[in-house]
Amino acid sequence: MDVTWYIVLSALLFAIGAGGVLIRRSPLVILLCLELMLNAGNLALVAFSRSSGNEEGQVFALIVMVVAACEVVVGLGLIVAMFRRRIPLNVDDIRELRG
Amino acid sequence: MSATSWAWLVLALPLAGSMVIACGWRALPGRTAGWIGTGAITLAFICSLGALIQLQGEPSDARELTDSLYSYASAAGLDIQLGILVDPLSVFMCLVVTGVSALIHLYSLAYMDSDRGYSRFFSYLNFFVFSMLLLVLAGNFVILIVGWAFVGFASYALISFWYRRYTATTAGMKAFVINVVGDVGLVLAAFFIFRELGTFDFLASFDAARETFTTNEGVVVAICLLICVGAFAKSAQVPLHTWLPDAMEGPTPVSALIHAATMVTAGVYLIARMFPLFELAPTAADIAAFLGLATLLIAATIALAVTDLKRIIAYSTMSQIGYMIVGVSIGAYGAGLFHLMTHAFFKALLFMAAGSVIAAMANRQNIDLMGGFWRAMPFTSRLLIVGCLALAAFPFTSGFFSKDEILVFAADRGGMYWIFAIGGYLGALLTAFYSFRIGFRVVTGEPVAEARELERGHIVHAEPENPATGEREDVDVGFPGPEHHIAEREWPMRVAMAVLGFGALFAGLIQIPGVDDVLESFLEPTFESSIFHDTVPTDSAAWIGLGVGAVIALAGIWFAYLCYVRRPGITARMVERLPRAHRFLFNKWYFDEVQDALVYRPAIAVGRFSNAVFERFVVDGIVQGAVGVARGAGAVVRGAQSGFVRAYALLLVGGFLALGVYFLVVSS
Q: Of B266, B279, B297, which is closest to residue B133 (Cα–Cα)?
């Protein structure tokens, strides 16, 4: 099986995600873009796994999903807490840790 | 029970007493702390008697018993036991220490009664006795050094007992520093012994020393001189003696216990204990004996001039310890230790009587202000005279037999050692004179105002002031307290003084030449391997020595009688006639000033220089330089921390991209 098209799709998704993280200011959208990047990685893992006939890549994809779920829980929790405290939902305004 | 079990009890009781008083001082009403302390030491004395009886039950060649509680340190061929050595010498020292200490505790029970630090005082005092017993019972150099250092600490704590009195705290520091100089000497000696002989144990190292060293080999002379540094610092011998007169800032019972009867004799004990080493290093022993002789004469001359009652007795202590050092250094071990015992009796007695007089004088100590206490204080005066008689070696008192035994031994060795006999008899003349300078000045003459007041049944009270500087005292932390206690009104003080007075008069009778020989024969198992074992003066020589001593003592007393009772103006005229000599003696041969110039000032100058130059430019430069480097690096790196999350993300992505490009380039 030719994996090229899968990898191209994966790279495309990853680039979209990375661009989103860099460009957008809303933390919610940044989180969504992060998910996109993770899933692009998952797609590549599964594609390679299929092409090499080895199942370990698929197991790894499952683990990435679990990590992604955890990340969403924490990230969304943070965003909700920020909203409740009326902290502006703009990552450029939240820069108290500057040196 | 075996002798060693008794010895462990002797050690445990004072420690327990100290702990109980220290932990329970809040709950101890009135004189309870004093009774606990006195009881603990009395029990320790009884246990020492138990050890003595057990030891005498052994055959005479098996009277060196060792025992160990546990292994103190064991590594790399080094095996140190928490061990004690019970032999006639250590049991003798235990008996003297616990016996005299018990009486001094009994005396302090009443004397310190109105002091605010009453419980603290007895806790320290018990701790001191424990340390001293650890020192004399130690079975190896490590435990000896532990006890030695504990004793130094206890002495510091007791000298500085009235810790708001500036002169007392500085005197405590001085004593501690000079004692530490001695500690260093002793520690270095122990290191040398371990390096040469591979053991810290007393008996093993003595046996090894006899096989390893040849007589007067450099190493063994060095060891003995280092031991002497320790012994001289503790025993206040020239040139490490200046702390002892200053130590009189402590309470009078402390002066009696530590600075007369027990602690300062530790050096004598040490030299006697190390006799196998000193016999291998006759040069070191001779140096020690000469320094002892120098101390004996210097201290006796100073005692002629100083006017502080306690300091006169302190100088007489130095002088008497000089006799002991001469004794144990020239090989008269039994005689030196005999003098140690009799001196403990009469010197503790003298201090107790002095304490009683000082209390009646509302804590003034200048003998120029005293006089005529015979009717006001009949008991104290009589006991003071008994103490003076024994100190002056009046015929058939205890000091008479013990002092002359040392001098006769010196004469018997002949040759160079005649110097010690002649110097010793010269010292005896001075001793008889200054001891009755105390006696006549305090007891006879026109009664002073304080004595008259006391005859009417009322003790004089004055504003508490420091006798050295005249400053107002802070009575909140002690200082003899609002009430003064004199022997006439307190039975514990009377009992303690009466027992010691009995000892001072009659303790000499255990060693009359040609009649009996109790102490020498008791100590024989310890010293039978000595090369001087067979050097025993004949009875006729001993009696000639005693006769000379008696004549000298009577001459000194008669001279004092002439100066202070018959024609009281003589001494004042002598001071006017010889102002230089008087000033020289009154300023204690300027030892303090010389030490100040030779040690203290250079040390301070080095310190100032280090602070001004080394500290400021070198140490500070290194520190400030390191700070500057860290700060500069921080300023550079800080710019990267903009706080923009997206900027961090860009750096991350950019970094990975750059890495990817790099790998692509490399792989293609």
A: B266
Q: Is A82 at the interface with chain B, CB within 8 A?
A: no
Nearest to B545 by CA among B514, B572, B524: B514
Cβ of residue B637 closer than 8 Å to a chain A Cβ: yes
Alpha-carbon span B105 to B89, nearest angstrom: 24
Of B120-134, B187-201, B351-365, B463-477, give the lowest mean pLDDT range: B463-477
Q: Is A22 on the interface with B (CB under 8 A)?
A: yes
Cα B390 to Cα B386: distance, rounded to the nearest angstrom: 6
| Domain presence at residue B637 | no
What is the full DSSP assignment across A37-85?
HHHHHHHHHHHHHHHHT-SHHHHHHHHHHHHHHHHHHHHHHHHHHHHHT
Give the tokens for residue A65: 């999903």
Q: State pLDDT tens for residues B336-360.
A: 999 999 999 999 999 999 999 988 8
Q: What is the Cα gyration radius of chain A?
A: 17
Please write the tens of the pLDDT for every residue from B90-102.
999 999 999 999 9
**What is the number of CB-based contacts under 8 A between chain A and chain B?**
37
- Pick the residue of A91, A93, A96 with the most B CBs within 10 A to test the interface with B by mutation: A91
Residues of chain A with Cβ-Cβ distance to B638 below 8 Å are 99
**Between the CA of residue B305 and those of A68, B187, B260, B298, B589, what are the distances in Å?**
96, 37, 20, 12, 11
Please indicate if any CB of chain B lies within 8 Å of the CB of A66. no
Vertex B47, ends B43 and B49: CA angle to 5°?
115
How far is the C-alpha of A57 from the C-alpha of A59, rounded, in Å? 5
Cα–Cα distance measured from residue B232 to residue B290, given in angstroms and rounded to the nearest whole number: 12
Q: Which domain holds residue B609?
A: 592-632+644-667
* Co-location of B486 and B610 in the same domain: no
Residues, chain A, total? 99
Structurally, chain B folds into a number of domains equal to 2
